[in-house]
Amino acid sequence: MFTVVRNLHRAWWIVAITFLTLISAAAFRSTTGVMLVPLENEFGWSRSVTSSAVALHLLMYGLTAPFAATLIERFSMRRVVAAALLLVASGLYLTTLMTQSWHLIVLWGLFVGFGTGCLALVFGAAVANRWFVKRRGLVTGVFSAGYATGSMIFLPLLTFTIESSGWRSASITVAAFCTVLAPIVFLFLRDRPSDVGLLPYGATEEPEMGPAVPATARGAIEVLFTSMRHPAFWVLAFTFFVCGWSTNGLIGTHFIPAAHDHGMPATTAASLLAIVGIFDLIGTIGSGYLTDKISSIWLLAFFYGMRGLALLTIPVVLGPHVNPPLIFFIVFYGLDWIATVPPTVQLCREYFGLGRSGVVYGWVFAFHMIGAAIAASFAGWIRESNGDYAIAWYTAAILCLIAAAAMLLLKKIPTIAQQEAEELVAH
């Protein structure tokens, strides 16, 4: 056993550290849905106000992602990630001292939004690109599952903490976890295998990364404008916009309040979301494995189509008690929750090249979180206007079905490399 551990490639230790870091970002996301009602009860804030704070957080989280790749390139992974963890810890601790609704919007939206944006899956994609040649899809799936595991670990714990000790104790718990993790990241995380005299896992020589992105904000923006001229970018951006709308923005933020509207206790609803996390762990790692084996386009068409059909059932299955149809929805939605990430990352690599794929995915991920932000605010407004979430569920379902159809358009779109080869032949 000790021989196996001693011979384990350093890349797998980097995976473990990255996984823990992504869990910390997921820990905050676990708190938002379960904190809405306690915050509204204590301060008298409306659902639209608390939803706006979540929406701004999701927007900042997404818009930070492409620039996080630039920050990592310029200042190193360990510095950026350790600083982001401390920023998240500071923002969460300061919420325990707030007295006005704008305090929540600034702290959740700006402090924690920027911090978790630097800890987004763009960071995980950069680790997979740099440290792995083989098993990239699987490792990307493991990182995507970090969100699920964070929810699985923290959601029941934080729900119990809120009910027994108040929401401030829950905020302090997550802040403490991030504070403890920051020095571990700074001491042990490394940017590239070459920093420790190694090749990436599965490589026999230093791999060709393709054209690199300048380590500046201008470079990241130039990648955006270049990518926008390629039709594949808009397909990926739209479908990931829908992914964010139907996960973080809608279910992640509003499932617990919606269940509360139907008379379900918060602890029960939180436990159901934790089950989503458990099955997401299985589904996302499985998606990563399948991404190494079969077409990412067909995977995504299937994932979005099934998610849309599942969302159509929520108004029927959600009630005061847990019932078999609701359990079926939770298990099915869990398997599909972030299974879209590994194939989306793979398509960014295929269409835009390995060297630029991290920043391209960062911009695609920004659309994911823009969708989540709009959905969080939209669903809160629908609830306040109509007294229920029915329109929000049906809107998300229709968007998912459109996304499934949109994925099939990629089969007719050439990659950038293919376009360049065709242009050379033409000349």
Name the CATH class: Mainly Alpha
Provide the helix percentage.
over 70%
State the major sheet. none
Report the β-strand fraction as a percent range. under 5%
Mean pLDDT: 83
Note the main attributes of this structure.
transmembrane; globular; 18 helices; mainly alpha
What is the secondary structure topology, with strand pairs?
Layout: H1 2-7, H2 10-43, H3 47-75, H4 77-95, H5 101-118, H6 121-131, H7 136-165, H8 167-188, H9 217-227, H10 231-261, H11 266-291, H12 296-311, H13 314-317, H14 324-336, H15 341-352, H16 354-386, H17 390-407, H18 416-426
Helix pairs in contact: 2-3, 2-4, 2-6, 2-7, 2-8, 2-10, 3-4, 3-5, 3-6, 3-16, 4-5, 4-8, 6-7, 6-16, 7-8, 7-11, 7-15, 9-16, 10-11, 10-15, 10-16, 10-17, 11-14, 11-15, 12-14, 12-15, 12-17, 15-16, 16-17
Task: Describe this entry's structure for a reader.
- The chain is built from 18 helices and no strands.
- It is mainly α and about 425 residues long.
- The chain has a single domain (about 10-195, about 215-425), classed as MFS general substrate transporter like domains (Growth Hormone, Chain: A).
- The longest helix has about 35 residues, at about 10-45.
- It starts with a helix and ends with a helix.
- The model has no long low-confidence stretch (mean pLDDT about 85).
- One of its GO terms (molecular function) is transmembrane transporter activity.
- It holds the Pfam family MFS_1.
